[in-house]
Protein 1
Amino acid sequence: MTNTEIAKKVIEALGGVENVNSVAHCATRLRVMVKDESIIDKDAVEDIEKVQGAFFNSGQYQIIFGTGTVNKIYDEVVALGLPTSTKAEMKAEAAKQGNFFQRSIRTFGDVFVPIIPAIVATGLFMGLRGLLGALGITLPEDLNVYSQILTDTAFIALPALVVWSTFRVFGGNPVIGIVLGFMLISGSLPNAWAVASGGDVKPEIFFGFIPVVGLQGSVLPAFIIGIIGAQFEKAVRKVVPEVLDLLVTPFITLFVMSILGLFVIGPVFHVVEQYILVAAETLLALPFGLPGLIIGGVHQIIVVSGVHHIFNLLESQLVANTGANPFNAIITAAMTAQGAATVAVGVKTKNAKLKALAFPAALSAFLGITEPAIFGVNLRFRKPFFLSLIAGAIGGAVASLLGLAGTGFGITIIPGSLLYLNGQLPQYILMVTVSFVAGFALTYMFGYEDEVTEGEASAKKPEEVATDELLAEATTSLLPEETLVSPLSGEVVELASVNDPVFSSGAMGKGLAVKPSEGVVYAPADAEVTIAFETGHAYGLKTASGAELLIHIGIDTVSMNGEGFEKLVAAGDKVKVGAPLAKFDSSKIAAAGLDDTTMVIVTNTADFEVVEGLAQGTVAHGADFLKVAK
């Protein structure tokens, strides 16, 4: 099938030219803004030749073609009449998608996602501390104090982190935000937890009638203060002369917002927060496993709607105020069932393309990201998705009956086991096992059957297939292997942990990622540059062994339109290992609200018997990074 024919099929499946507002592309996927999502024939899109997957994300319908191919398909669909837009215009348009509630929940995610790593780390420290207690190990006094520092600091400072992140999202100065946040938990104020314990510590009375305590562990008041504070700062900056901005704007912002935060917003929304917490605890305390049955059954539907980030607020309140998060165990059951259904499809299908998609998507689910499993496999065939909801309800009920509660939030299933080291690990494993077995068994027995196509009916005879496999094995065993060196210096990140379902699911191929410590990308091998994007954010290389590499600097950095990137090579160049390919400015990527984690992927993984990561922890450019072998 030619690229023109593929483009025609894409347009037809999208509902025609008249259903497309605009189209753009990045290094790997076609990004389409559509007028009516219901018109799209998603099954037809998935079946088009060269399509490696498709899903909705950030208001865009994203069709994965891979490096090189996507450029050609984009040119073809534009030639056939699809309207274009810049990446920045598309990103701005995507931000407007959905109703007010959906946009608000998306904002919750933008605020809380950067905070989650700190809470995850603290939760792991809590789990390890609980494990020591379960083993009867008593720490010396000095180490006990140190353990309290590890486990308590993030939750004491949580309001400051929330105000900082909210200022960042709403366009204020994050430094002003974090200072304002620390004012809310000042040591000069009575500690909120000490006051709540009913001891001798009492609220400080201001102006004779306003009781004020520190907001340690509070989330909702900090979020509201951050929104109002960021908007107020921007308003002040508009009227203050530029020459006085550095002095006057921070002074007025901190003065006014400290008054509002401590004496109005804080007390009012602290009460509101307590009611929300009581309501959540009441729901989670229902008998007969009902909380898990209900939440486990609907959680993945909420994920599909894109509003699941609202639970970050609830979970952070639960952990900060009670030290326990039963919600984490329930959603772990729901996510395990989703991944298990995907495994069942992968095991049962004889379609090589579907197998190649299902197993990496399932792995991504077991590492805590279910979107590739949902959109790439389960929803596509419908029954696996709905049967996984039943399995999730069963697993969730088990979690509630066992009284499981994590010590943090933000991680689930395999990495989430670290939140249950305080004597709950056997019960956690039991719950995950029940969820997996239920999801796999229901889907395998009732949820999926391969469709018999005309092409399959005329497939090769078994002896012909066996001969082909032997020939392929004999041929590939003679081909060499190659060691690729790291193109960057920084911290190695497993691909499955990358915050982008296309990369983390393995849909683009195997590889590793790096959180860079310097802004230069070097050639990982002697290679030919096959692609060098004008925006400077992504490069394709072909090495001597035939490995086709994608080096993608940052996540969604295509939207920066080249700002902060310097391209040092062009397509067709021959480069030696260690030659500079590009420079980039991580501070500009961060200022754009984006992640500079850089992916290094072997996009033709299927051509290799082995694609193996060699690096862990901190890596310097030029160190051994990936091994490929045929």
Protein 2
Amino acid sequence: MRHDSGTDFSDWLQGRPADARHSSRPVLMVTWSIQEGFGGMTAMCLKRAGLFHERGIPSAVVTFDANPDLATIRTKLLESGRLHPDVPLLNLHDFYAEHSPARPQGQAPRRARGSEWVESARTLRSRDGSLFYVDYRLPGHEAAAVREYHRSDGTIYLIDSTLPGDGDAAADSRTLELVAPDGNVIATLDNPGKLYRRFLTDLVDLAHADVVVDSKYSAGFLWSWKHPEAVKVVNFHSTHVAAGQDPMTGKLSTAHQKIIQNRDAWDGITFLTESQRTAFVQRFGETSNTFVISNPVDGPRTLPAFEDRKPHSVIHVGRFTKGKNIGELLEIVKKVATAGTPIHLDLVGDGDQRPVLEAKVHQLGVEDLVTFHGHVNDVGQRLHHARVLLLCSKFEGQSLAILEAQAHGCVPVAYDVDFGPRDVIENRRNGFLVPFGEQETAAQAVTSLLADDSLCEAMSTQGFNDSVHFRSDVIFEKWMEALDTARANRAGRDALTAANVRIAGIKFHPDGDMDLEVYVEIGEANLSGLCLQSKQRGIPDGDGVEIQPHHGDDSVFHFRLPADLRAQQPAGDALDLNLVLGIGSMTRTIRLGASPSMQTTPYFTVYGNLSLK
């Protein structure tokens, strides 16, 4: 692929691993932005890109935001080792400022800015002080705005205009114009999402890559993006429900809603833990595009000597947030000390709850038992010397702290909350799982590990041995398997995703049975499986009752529902009916409904009479 000057710029798109796997496609790791002080999701996106590169898969990190400090951030990431030196950090604005895909429309940009517009601000790039963008406003029109993005040589590469529409705010129009160095328009787009999707298409066209999306925000505009060559995978870094909500019935996480609503649009959806994936499919139905791939955690190759551990050392690693429930952890430490077992707690991390926690330390009178360390760069060494990791979180996605602790032989004691701890800790074998809020039980577990050397050493060894399942080599192979599976399943999945299903009719029999007629349109694909599934709402366990069609014709299949179906599933709420379609080894579960154009809904009164709503 060529830059507009005719030179090859494929190395700009992706690094070249020394031992490249020629049979595998490159992979683009997509997030929205990389800011100073980023969190675990961005850290894992960067780490995965390096992990792929080191194992022969060309990789790059992709961002979309307009950040004048991106070059400085890139330099800091390289200096700190958080970005692999051979993994490019690709940004939409860098791309269109430096490269011009040869698809010009051939006309000059629409000049929205006349003499009545006034300059309101200008922003410079931190790397060289060159002009990045200029903002203009239109007096008397609050929503009207124009931003012109400039190359380092001063030419414009993007104009983002919101123009007033005849005094009606609802008629305001937004236009984004990509501009070539010669001033001709490359493309005109009417919303930012189209620009972001075009950028990703341009990258995939050039790099022939697959795509892994980490950012929930980016997934919100990329669910509809599709490329004929690229496999598209989205990562769930946290649960599908709002914090503290029930996974089966709780309010959906706002950030995840578009992913969930359009879950069939992804070639793959990855979850960090099996319990997280199970909760998702129990609520939304089993599909063939879900995978469990943990974050990679690498500890020492040999178990640190138990004699190196401080006899009374307990550690907590994580951000100081309300969800981490560290105040309760302090109360547990006091219980252990009050019962006569020497203990010292090291708090590693920081956050907005630190002043509250410092006040609670004084309130409990445990100043001599607790040390605040803030952010440190030697977490591994601290886990190497600690006996116990103590976590009292109210909820978890996947606890990297637990994985890192076991990888260093530090024994975890954690509240058994959704979703991470129970996927890693086998109670009383490689750690302790404690029912949420049972401080006395947690204190007893910590006491036993501090007081019983043989118990603590045995659990330390077991946890360390189990941690090999989360090492980078293992996780990388899981990624390769998931991408290969997603690609192999793509044609069948596309057919399942396009399936049109609806209730076509209902017939009542004198014996109380009911015939349900279901219309199924699947295109040219051949179904390998079809059944009706009756499942109790809000009940996660069990597969419900499956009913096979007794005959079908002209795309309408008939299912006989027995009169005692409700009695067969006596507990729980209403019975939900789903159609399960199969093509080969793949399945899709579809909630049954009537035609969207239906204006009335039939129902039966308490006396068995038919009425309409």
Protein 3
Amino acid sequence: MLKRTLAIAVCVALTGCNDKPADTSTQAQATEQPTAVADNAAATKGFTYPTTRKGDVVDTYFEQQIADPYRWLEDDMSEETASWVESQNKVTFDYLQQIPYRDELKKSLKNLMDYEKVSAPFQEGEYTYFYKNDGLQNQYVLYRQKGDAEAEVFLDPNTFSEDGTTSLAGVSFSEDGSLAAYQISEGGSDWRKVIVLDTNTMKPVGETLVDVKFSGIAWLGNEGFYYSSYDKPKGSELSAKTDQHKLYYHKLGTAQKDDQLVFGGTDEQKHRYVGGAVTSDQRFLIISAAVSTSGNKLFIKDLTKDNSPLVTVIDDITYDSDILDNDGDTLYIVTNKDAPNKRVVTVNASQPTPENWKDLIPETENVLNISKGGNYFFASYMVDAISQVKQFDKSGKLVREIELPGVGTASGFGGKKEQSTLYYSFTNYKTPGTIFSFEVESGESKIYNESGAKFDPSLYDSKQVFYTSKDGTKVPMILTYKKGIKMDGTNPTILYGYGGFNVSLTPRYSATTAAWLEQGGVYAVPNLRGGGEYGKEWHKAGTQMQKQNVFDDFIAAAEYLIENKYTSSDYLAVRGGSNGGLLVGAVMTQRPDLFKVALPAVGVLDMLRYHTFTAGAGWAYDYGTAQDSKEMFEYLKGYSPVHNVKSGVSYPATLVTTGDHDDRVVPAHSYKFAAELQAKDAGENPVMIRIETNAGHGAGTPTSKIIEQYADIYGFTLYNMGIKKL
């Protein structure tokens, strides 16, 4: 598939609306002088929380005043915030160091992660490329191999920085493979640098591009490439709004300041996410433009004709559409227009608008994801979140259903038109990923690379169950655990969820999850509304004024686990990251009695102000904003975790986790939530915040930090369930 550079990564490139009705001003009513000091009742728990200053900022929404006493924590450039981070981390790590089996958990994680991991190979020019991690390397290394010659290192991100926090964030090759543009991320930031290499000499070509964000690289011959970014914000690079995405063309050998603006920069072309791609025959430039994380406009430009116009394919942002491929003037488009579960259509590039679309692969009852390779299309359907893959030719004729090695997730089947061998991986929660080769003509699959993970799947069960949510909706959930455990309500259990942005949680092996299973833990993953497991309608059922459905689905999952004796409230932890962090924050404030431990990670926790940071307003399709209407404001206020912490309530043992350089979901969300909990919690459970320094939203996190993080998360969880010894 053409790489869609609308870069909406899982919980995803989220953005900002400037328009608001005159009566919904959220301007601060007062200055931020300290008027009170946060309550500090932690001394009775054997530790003392740092004092968090309370300011007297008050915002007005529809004539209703909302206090925001910890607004000052939004200033990531202030010394006071830095001091607060340092003092919170000291308390947290002092507490974590008391856990008697913390080192034992690190050893377990290290052992499970210490095996050679190799990606599927891909062809670029005369070389075959693949990623490999020898075991505990902080970052995967990109290798290349010509024919039967010995593989050589092409790019080693472990040399980019001493502590492993600078990562390789993507690489794109020119059509003949002679040039490569690779992106690097420093400290987990979404802001990237782009470096171009001559793949023969390994010497840099031209200058390094800077300040690139949410972008792919689309080469046009060997002359240059298209990329996307925002104007560098004034003030904090971490939290300032980035509202207008622009597509540029960079000609090699010229200065970045002279790059040509291709799309964006005008009121007519103002969008929060803009991406460019070039068809493999170099015929068309494809531009995708969106104002939110759902729905996009689509344009094409004929690059073989001088001064050719930008032609609209679809200008309705209600739908998601993408151009998969072309054969001359014939375009192949995947879309959910008039097909909530998606379909593939064809159209002539001279008249590409929807009224001329013809079905090639019609919509079915299952959600479609599509890839291309070997001059075929591979339709991967989700059947109750489980993969089913079918091969189609370019006329839309079914060639075969591909027999998969089991029940789980298959991904891959991508490659160039001329390839006769493609590759795919297969995995589930208890089966480490195995890579298979696939012959496109015969349909034969063979194991290409078997996992060397030190984990025995035969010792574990993984099964799918269906439970009933509050409104009667049936929701699937996959449960994984050691064989032979007793269903007596005492099994330590992590209930993990996401429930948003059309993201589907399909079963995949993870060494960190395996470490939890090895300790006798149950791992439960429900496919909540708001996700994409059952198509657009399932997604919409968990958005805006229906967001409570997501929380109800998660709560019902917890009640199912308790009712069926997998666990009990004393042994149940809830975990989720990003939009999943919001999920955890919402359910722990709505049902604090239901869970023993809460683990919100990099969460969207202040629902009245999320849209004022970085690209946050782009998440409004899922959330709405407090400025939309009084009804929307009241709804958001009704579940916003920061605004629903109540004095006198005993909350679950809570470990909030975030990165101090997260420029997607800014850490102020987590800071303010932790401050509210510490000030108001009336129970004996600890409320801690673990702030990873020089770290972002999660992508590119070095292996060493992953081991430390999960040892602390699992240690905190088990310790607060009363488990004193592993």
